C-alpha cells in the first residue's frame, strides 16, 4: 500500500534443509568423519510407538489413548489406559504391526476429548510427545530419575539451553562425547528448568568435552550454523549461539512460577451454521500468557478440549441445531492454569453448502512467477455484486458505467487460464476482508477481518472456490493481508468509534438514518436510504455513553468544501480521543524514518492498530488463521515496515507458521510464502541510514533479548539497532555462489518474512540500474533469492513515479528478461503484458474516474474465451482475449516463463558475477536432491565468462552449442531485451522465437 496520507530417518547432514516449524529454517547438524550419519534401522515385523502426553494443563483424573494404526481399526472407546511416566507426563507404548504410524486422540474416559481440534493427531513411530496440541519427538522423562547426579569417576556436564527466542515447546540434546559416538536422532529430551531454559546432565566418561546440537523434535535444529557446539565438562549455558563455560545456574535465582493467569473475561459465543466463533478478552499473568484452553461440552460426540494461541477460536463441523457450552482457561509458560471462565452457550443452525477447505500446494515459492491483480478491477464475472460507493457520481465513475467494485472472484476464476497461459503459477490478489470507506475497492480499508467482502463473491464463486480452482490448475493464491491498520471506522469485533452527525439539511446526504437490525456488509442495500455503504451505525446525534472524544459535537469553526458546518468528532481522527490508546495509536506520523512511523497513523483513512497490544494481536491472528485454514499459499504483507520487527518476530510470524503447521503440516509451513512490503523509496542500500526502516532488516530474527513487554521491546530494539548502525548488521552468503559451487543456505536466523525488492523497483527505470543496485544489497538480506521483484505496482512506478511504467516496449522487454533470469521471483502487475494504461496516473483517489488511471478495468481486454492446458501454452482463444494474447510482451513473457520453468538455476539458484565481463551478466547454480543446474546468463549485451566448469553448454534461447575446454565462454550481444542462457549439459532451445527472444 502506498504510504501517503491520502518428520527424520537418521542423523541429518548439513546438506539437508530442515523444516522450520515455528520461526523459520535451521540447518541440521553437520556430519563429521567421526560421526557418520545414522543408518536407518531395517524394517521389522512390528513397529512400536511410545506416546507421552502432557498432563499439567489438563489435570484429568485418568488418561486414555484412543488410536488406530495407519490402515487399521480404532481401539474401543475410550482406548488404552496410559500410565504415569514422570512429573506432568503419562505414557503408553503400543504395537503397530507393519504400520508406520497411528492416528490418535486422548480422553479422560468421561466424555472429554483432545482430538486436535477435530482432526485427530497423526503420529509416527518411536518416541513421541504430545504437549498442548504440539507433536514432537523426544523422551521428556529422560534423566528424570537422576536429575542431579552425584559426582562419580566420570566427567559430567550440565547443559542449559535457552529457547526464549525460538518458541520451541520441547528441546532435545543430540551429542557426541569426544572420541565417542553420536546419540540417535533426535537425541535425549531435555527437561524444563525454568522459564525459557531447558536442562540435561550428561555422563561423559573419560571425555573432557562433547559436540552437541539441539532440536525441537520436529526437524528444526540449532547446530551452531553447521559447526556444532563444543561443550566442556561442568555447567555450560547455550543461548542464542553463545556458549558460556563454567556458568552460573541461570535458574538459581528464579523462584518457581506458581501464579496462575487471571480468568479470561467477556467470553462470547456466536453460531454461524455448524460453526461457533468464540472470543474473549486476554488474561494477564506475571510472566505472560502462552495459550488458552477451550473446553466444549454438548452434542452426541462428547466434549473436547482444544489449545489455541489467540483470543479467537473457531469451532467448526459441529452437529446441526445443537447447543454447545464453552469455558476458557488461560495457561502460562509454567503450565499454570487460570480458573475456568464463565460458561457461554451457542446453538448451531443448519449446515450450509460449502466447498471443502483447500490445502496449499506447498512447493518452493521461488518456482512460481507471480501475477498481481486488483481483484475488483481485473475481470467482472457477476454484475450483481458491482457497487459504486459514496463517491460513485463525484469521481466520474458513474459516467463511465464503471463501479469501483466491478471485478470479482468469478471473473478471476473465469480467466485463470489466461494467467496460466501467460506462464504464471502464482496469483497475488488484493485483500479479501470486508472493507469500509468511501473508496475501498483496493481492499486496504479493512472493517470486518473475519468476513470475506461479499462484493467479491458470487454463488459458486466464493473465495474458497477461487482457491480450489487455482489449486486444481496448479496455481497458488497469495493473499494480501493488513496487520497495521483498519479502516477509519475501526474494526468490527475489536473497536468501532461513534461520530457526530446531525442529519440536518446539510449532512443528511452523508449520515444515514439508523436502521435497527440492519448491518453494513458493503453489498446489501439499505431499503430506506438505497445505499449499500450505509453508515447509520456509526453516528449519534446525542453524546454516546462512555464518550472519550474531546469537545464532542461542538463546531470546529471550520467549513466543509461544500460550506457545511464542521463539528468535532465528526470524522475519525487519532488525536481526538475517539480511539482507545490500548487498541489504536493516537498520533500522526511526523518522521517517515523515525520511530513514530511504526507507532502512528499514516493516513486519515487508515486507523493505526497498536500491534503491541495482545488483544489487537489476537484479533488479527484469529482473523488470518481463517484464511490459512482455507488453504491460501502465502501472504503479501501490506505496510510491514509500520510494525516493529520485534512484533513480527514474536507474534505474527510464529503464529502464521504455527497455524499452517497445525492445519497443513510442516512441509506446507516451510513453503508458506510471506513477503512484506517494507516501503523504502530511496536508491541507497539502507533507507536514509535507518536500518529499522530498510527492507532487508525484516528478514532477520532479533540478535538479543528485549523486555517481555512488546511495546517496551519495540523501543529497545529500535534504539539498539539504530546504535548498531548500517555497518554492524547481519550479513549472508545465501544468495551467492562459492566460486562455481552452490552451498546449502543457512536460514537459522531467518525471521519468517521475505520482502519485496524495493531497491530494484525504485531503479527499474533502467534495467542495468536495477541489476547493479539490487545485487549491491544482497549480502544484507537473509536470502535474496526469495525477493519479490517488480517494475511497477498499484502504488508506484520506478523512482517513486506516480504513473504506470512508460519506458517503452523495448525497455519493458529488457526489464522482464532481467527479472526472469536474475535472483528473485518475477512479478507482473496486471495488464503490464500489454503496457496497459502506460503513462496514466496510478491512482488519484475518488477525485477522478478509475477508467483514466492505472487501476482501470482490465476485463475488456479479456473478453472471449481462453483455455490453457499448461503454463505458457494457450490451447484456444476467441474474441478480444485472442488479440490480447498476440501482443509482443505477452509472447515475450510466455517464453521467459517457459525458459525459467525449465532451468532450476534460474528459479532457486545462487549467483555470482566474479570472472565475468559484461553489464547485466552473471552465472547461477542450484544443486540439491539430485539436481545440478548451472547457467551462464547475459541480458542485452555481450559477456565473457571465465573460470567456469568445462563441458557442453547449450543456449536455451537459440539452441547454440558451445564446448568449453579452457574455462572460458564468450557471448556476443544479443540485442536489447534479448538474452542468452547457456546451460551446462542443457537440453537446448526452449520454446519458439518471439519478438525479443530469438
TrEMBL record:
CDD domains registered for this protein in UniProt: AmyAc_bac_CMD_like_2, FN3
Keywords, alphabetical: Carbohydrate metabolism, Glycosidase, Hydrolase, Metal-binding, Polysaccharide degradation, Signal
Pfam families noted in UniProt: Alpha-amylase, CBM_25, fn3
Record-annotated Fibronectin type-III domain positions: 260-351
Domain of life: Bacteria
Record InterPro entries: CBM25 (IPR005085), FN3_dom (IPR003961), FN3_sf (IPR036116), GH (IPR017853), GH13_cat_dom (IPR006047), Ig-like_fold (IPR013783)
Basic and acidic residues compositional bias, start-end: 390-401
UniProt feature, compositional bias: Acidic residues: 246-256
Keyword Metal-binding: yes
GO annotation terms (biological process): polysaccharide catabolic process
Keyword presence, Signal: yes
Gene Ontology MF annotations: hydrolase activity, acting on glycosyl bonds; metal ion binding; starch binding
Comp. bias regions, Low complexity: 345-363
Location of region: Disordered: 241-264, 344-366, 378-401
Cofactor(s) required for function per UniProt: Ca(2+)
N-terminal signal peptide: 1-31
Name of this protein: Alpha-amylase
Organism phylogeny: Bacteria, Bacillati, Actinomycetota, Actinomycetes, Kitasatosporales
Amino acid at each position: 500500500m502506498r504510504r501517503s496520507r491520502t518428520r527424520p530417518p537418521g542423523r541429518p547432514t548439513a546438506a539437508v534443509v530442515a523444516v522450520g516449524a515455528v520461526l523459520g529454517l535451521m540447518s541440521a547438524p553437520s556430519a563429521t568423519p567421526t560421526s557418520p550419519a545414522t543408518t536407518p534401522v531395517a524394517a521389522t515385523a512390528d513397529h512400536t510407538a511410545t506416546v507421552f502426553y502432557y498432563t499439567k494443563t489438563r489435570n484429568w483424573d485418568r488418561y486414555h489413548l484412543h488410536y488406530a494404526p495407519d490402515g487399521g481399526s480404532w481401539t474401543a472407546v475410550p482406548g488404552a489406559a496410559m500410565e504415569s511416566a514422570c512429573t506432568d507426563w503419562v505414557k503408553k507404548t503400543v504395537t503397530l504391526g507393519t504400520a508406520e504410524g497411528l492416528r490418535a486422540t486422548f480422553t479422560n474416559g468421561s466424555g472429554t476429548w483432545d482430538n486436535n481440534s477435530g482432526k485427530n493427531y497423526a503420529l509416527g513411530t518411536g518416541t513421541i510427545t504430545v504437549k498442548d496440541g504440539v507433536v514432537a519427538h523426544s523422551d521428556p522423562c529422560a534423566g528424570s530419575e537422576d536429575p542431579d547426579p552425584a559426582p562419580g569417576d566420570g566427567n559430567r556436564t550440565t547443559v542449559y539451553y535457552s529457547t526464549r527466542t525460538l518458541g520451541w515447546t520441547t528441546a532435545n540434546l543430540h551429542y557426541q562425547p569426544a572420541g565417542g559416538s553420536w546419540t540417535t536422532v533426535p537425541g535425549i529430551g531435555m527437561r524444563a528448568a525454568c522459564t525459557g531454559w531447558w536442562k540435561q546432565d550428561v555422563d561423559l566418561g573419560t571425555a573432557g568435552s562433547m559436540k552437541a546440537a539441539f532440536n525441537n523434535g520436529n526437524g528444526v535444529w540449532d547446530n551452531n550454523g553447521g559447526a556444532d557446539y563444543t561443550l566442556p565438562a561442568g555447567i555450560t549455558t547455550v543461548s542464542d549461539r553463545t556458549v558460556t563455560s563454567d556458568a552460573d545456574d541461570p535458574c538459581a535465582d528464579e523462584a518457581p512460577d506458581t501464579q496462575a493467569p487471571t480468568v479470561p473475561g467477556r467470553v462470547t459465543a456466536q453460531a454461524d451454521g455448524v460453526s461457533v466463533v468464540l472470543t474473549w478478552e486476554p488474561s494477564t499473568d506475571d510472566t505472560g500468557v502462552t495459550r488458552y484452553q477451550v473446553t466444549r461440552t454438548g452434542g452426541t460426540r462428547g466434549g473436547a478440549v482444544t489449545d489455541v494461541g489467540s483470543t479467537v477460536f473457531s469451532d467448526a463441523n459441529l452437529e446441526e441445531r445443537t447447543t454447545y457450552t464453552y469455558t476458557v482457561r488461560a495457561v502460562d509458560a509454567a503450565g499454570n492454569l487460570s480458573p475456568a471462565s464463565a460458561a457461554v452457550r451457542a446453538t448451531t443452525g443448519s449446515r450450509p453448502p460449502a466447498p471443502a477447505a483447500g490445502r496449499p500446494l506447498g512447493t518452493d515459492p521461488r518456482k512460481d512467477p507471480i501475477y498481481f491483480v486488483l481483484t475488483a478491477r481485473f475481470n467482472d464475472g457477476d454484475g450483481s455484486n458491482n457497487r459504486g460507493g459514496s463517491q460513485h457520481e463525484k469521481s466520474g465513475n458513474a459516467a463511465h458505467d464503471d463501479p469501483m467494485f466491478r471485478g470479482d472472484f468469478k471473473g478471476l476464476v473465469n480467466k485463470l487460464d489466461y494467467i496460466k497461459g501467460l506462464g504464471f503459477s502464482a496469483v497475488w490478489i488484493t485483500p479479501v476482508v470486508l472493507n469500509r470507506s468511501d473508496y475501498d475497492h483496493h481492499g486496504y480499508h479493512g472493517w470486518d477481518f473475519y468476513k470475506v467482502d461479499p462484493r467479491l463473491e458470487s454463488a459458486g464463486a466464493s473465495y474458497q472456490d477461487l482457491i480450489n480452482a487455482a489449486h486444481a490448475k496448479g496455481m497458488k493464491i497469495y493473499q494480501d493481508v493488513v496487520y497495521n491498520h483498519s479502516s477509519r471506522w475501526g474494526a468490527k469485533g475489536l473497536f468501532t468509534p461513534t461520530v457526530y452527525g446531525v442529519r440536518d439539511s446539510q449532512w443528511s446526504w452523508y449520515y444515514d438514518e439508523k436502521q435497527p437490525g440492519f448491518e453494513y456488509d458493503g453489498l446489501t442495500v439499505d431499503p430506506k436510504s438505497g445505499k449499500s455503504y450505509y453508515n447509520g451505525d456509526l453516528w449519534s446525534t446525542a453524546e454516546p455513553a462512555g464518550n472519550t472524544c474531546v469537545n464532542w459535537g461542538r463546531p470546529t469553526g471550520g467549513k466543509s468544501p461544500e460550506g457545511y458546518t464542521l463539528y468535532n468528532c465528526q470524522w475519525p481522527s487519532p488525536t481526538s480521543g475517539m480511539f482507545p490508546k490500548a487498541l489504536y495509536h493516537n498520533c500522526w506520523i511526523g518522521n517517515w524514518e523515525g520511530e513514530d512511523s511504526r507507532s502512528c497513523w499514516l493516513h486519515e483513512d487508515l486507523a493505526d492498530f497498536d500491534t503491541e497490544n495482545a488483544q489487537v494481536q489476537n484479533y488479527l491472528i484469529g482473523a488470518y488463521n481463517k484464511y490459512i485454514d482455507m488453504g491460501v499459499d502465502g501472504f503479501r504483507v501490506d505496510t510491514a515496515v509500520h510494525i516493529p520487527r520485534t512484533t513480527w518476530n514474536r507474534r505474527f510470524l510464529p503464529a502464521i507458521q504455527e497455524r499452517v503447521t497445525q492445519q497443513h503440516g510442516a512441509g506446507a509451513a516451510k513453503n508458506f510464502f510471506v513477503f512484506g512490503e517494507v516501503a523504502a523509496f530511496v536508491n541507497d542500500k539502507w533507507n536514509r541510514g535507518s536500518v529499522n526502516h530498510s527492507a532487508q532488516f525484516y528478514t532477520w530474527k532479533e540478535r538479543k533479548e528485549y523486555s517481555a513487554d512488546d511495546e517496551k521491546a519495540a523501543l529497545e530494539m529500535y534504539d539498539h539497532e539504530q546504535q548498531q548502525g548500517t555497518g554492524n548488521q547481519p550479513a549472508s552468503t545465501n544468495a551467492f555462489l562459492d566460486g562455481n559451487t552452490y552451498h546449502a543456505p543457512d536460514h537459522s536466523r531467518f525471521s519468517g518474512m521475505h520482502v519485496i525488492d524495493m531497491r530494484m523497483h525504485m531503479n527499474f527505470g533502467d534495467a542495468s540500474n536495477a541489476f547493479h543496485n539490487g545485487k549491491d544489497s544482497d549480502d544484507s538480506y537473509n536470502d535474496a533469492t526469495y525477493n519479490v521483484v517488480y517494475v511497477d505496482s498499484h502504488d508506484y512506478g520506478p523512482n517513486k513515479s506516480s504513473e504506470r511504467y512508460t519506458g517503452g516496449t523495448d525497455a519493458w522487454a529488457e526489464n522482464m528478461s532481467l527479472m526472469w533470469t536474475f535472483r528473485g521471483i518475477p512479478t507482473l502487475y496486471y495488464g503490464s503484458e500489454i503496457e496497459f494504461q502506460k503513462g496514466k496516473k496510478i491512482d488519484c483517489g475518488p477525485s477522478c474516474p478509475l477508467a483514466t488511471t492505472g487501476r482501470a478495468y482490465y476485463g475488456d481486454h479479456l473478453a472471449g474465451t481462453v483455455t490453457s492446458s499448461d503454463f505458457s501454452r494457450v490451447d484456444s482463444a476467441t474474441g478480444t482475449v485472442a488479440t490480447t494474447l498476440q501482443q509482443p510482451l505477452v509472447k515475450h513473457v510466455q517464453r521467459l516463463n517457459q525458459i525459467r520453468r525449465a532451468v532450476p538455476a534460474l528459479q532457486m539458484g545462487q549467483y555470482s558475477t566474479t570472472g565475468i565481463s559484461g553489464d547485466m551478466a552473471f552465472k547461477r547454480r542450484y544443486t540439491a536432491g539430485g539436481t545440478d543446474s548451472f547457467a551462464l546468463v547475459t541480458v542485452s549485451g555481450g559477456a565473457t565468462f571465465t573460470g567456469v566448469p568445462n563441458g557442453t553448454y547449450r543456449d536455451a534461447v537459440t539452441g547454440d552449442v558451445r564446448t568449453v575446454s579452457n574455462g572460458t565462454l564468450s557471448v556476443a550481444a544479443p540485442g536489447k531485451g534479448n538474452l542468452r542462457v547457456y546451460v551446462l549439459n542443457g537440453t537446448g532451445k526452449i520454446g519458439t522465437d518471439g519478438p525479443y527472444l530469438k
